[in-house]
Structure prediction request, 350 residues.
Amino acid sequence: MSWIPPLLLHYYITERCNSRCSFCDIWRQPAGPDALLEDVERNLHDAARLGLRFVDFTGGEPLLHADLPRMLRRARSEGLRTTLTTNAMLYPDRAAELVGNVDFLHFSLDASTAADHDRLRGRPLFDRVMASIDLARQLGEKPDLLFTALPDNLHHLPGLAEFCRRLGLVLIVNPVFSHREKRELNPEDLAFIDQFARRPFVYVNRAFHLLRKRGGNSIVQPRCRVVDSVVVISPQNQLILPCYHHEQARISLVEGLAACWHSAAVNELRAQQGRWPACAGCTLNCYFDPSFACRIDALFMHSMAAKIKYARDKYVRAPLMRTLSRTDPRPAAGIMASLSKPDDSPAEAR
Ligand code: SF4
Ligand code: SF4
Prediction:
C-alpha cells in the first residue's frame, strides 16, 4: 500500500473522437458509452478526499461530452485543478460554457501550416485552432498550444515557437510516445528539440528525452510509478489499472473510488507497476510525468526545471507582456501567415 496520495486523475469521459490523427489508435476502436455525470461527480468528490490535486478530462475528444462544463465546475468546487486538451474543432461553439473553469487549456497544434496540420490530424482543424486561440484570448483564457513532436513535423517547431513568443502563449513540446506501435524520435530529433528548451514560451521537458536516451522504462528497475501517482477512470465507471495503454484490470467503481483504491486487488497491481513485459522500453509521457515526482533523481530534476520555466513563462512573463502591450494584437491566423514558411526538410531546419 502506498501512503503517498496519487497526484493526477486521468478521467476518460468519452472514447469518441471527431479527429483522425495519424499517430493515435483511439479513433480506430469502437467507442463504448460516455461517462455519466452522476458517476463523474461522485468520483471527483472521492478523488479530492483521496488527496489528488489535478484532473485531466480526456478521451477521445472531451468536448464531445455534453456535460463537460458541469464536470469542470464540480472538479473546481472540490478543489481540483483542471486540465483539458482539445483538437479545437468544437471549442469555438462551446467556449462560453467553459470559460473560467479550465486551469490548463491546451489546443493541439502540430504544424504551422493548414496543409500539414490537417494532414496529421485527418480533419480540417487548423482554422479552428486559429479561431480558438483568438476566442480564448478574448475571453481572458490563457491557453497553451500542444505540439506533438513527430519525426516528420519537427521543421515546424521554429515557426511555432516564434508564433507563441509573439502571442505570449506557451508551446508545450510533447514527444510522440511509444508503446505498442514504435514511432519514436531518434537522438538527433531529441537534440534538435533540446535547442528550444531555453527559449521563452517553449516548454521542453528534458526528462522525457533522458528517459528515451536510457531506452525507456526498465522492467528490472522500473521508473514507472503509475499506480502510485495516477488514477485512471474509464467512461464506463471503472478503474483502469495500471494505465490506459496497458490495461491489466478494470475494477467497477460502484463501491466508490476510495474503497477501490485501498483494496487488495489494487495493491497487488501496484506491486507490479512497470514490471510487465509490455512495460519494457515504455515512454508514455502522460504517465511518466507524475512518476518523475515519485523519486528524486536526474529525471525528477529535469522535470522540475521544466515546470519552473513553464510557470515563469505563463504566470510572470506573459502577464508582463500583456501589461506592456508587447503581445501581437493581430488575429492568430494573420500572425501565422506572416511568419516565414517552414523548411521542407527537417535537416535544413536544423
Ligand atoms: S484528437 Fe486526440 S483522441 Fe482524437 S484522434 Fe487525435 S490524438 Fe486521438
Ligand atoms: S511502464 Fe508504461 S505500460 Fe507499463 S504500467 Fe507504466 S505507463 Fe503503463
About this structure: Residues 217, 224, 226, 242-243, 245-246, 273-274, 276, 278-279, 282, 284, 287 surround iron/sulfur cluster (ligand 2) (CB under 6 Å). Strands lie at 8-12, 54-58, 81-86, 104-108, 144-149, 171-175, 202-204, 230-233, 238-241, 249-252. The chain has one domain: 8-349. The chain has a mean pLDDT of 94.
